[in-house]
Amino acid sequence: MSERPYSVRVAAKDSETTSQTADFPDIRNLSYEQARDELISIVAQLEGGQIGLEDSMTLWQRGEALATHCNTWLDGAEAKLTAGAEAQPAKGD
Prior knowledge:
Layout: H1 32-48, H2 53-87
């Protein structure tokens, strides 16, 4: 990935973690791939260590929400695969 699609400028000031801040799209509308790519970008920004504490905290919260979103997608895919495998008759039956 060559560009970081999002960077922090203004943090949401409320104490609750939300799925949307002023500069980020709503997580519920992201595909797995979009959420994963944004999470990768956030990790790179945090590892770079070039942003302030408040912005780091905002990125961390966004990253946590993105990771949860990705896990939900993966859990759903696993459930579908498991259900599909159980629905197929075993070979030789």
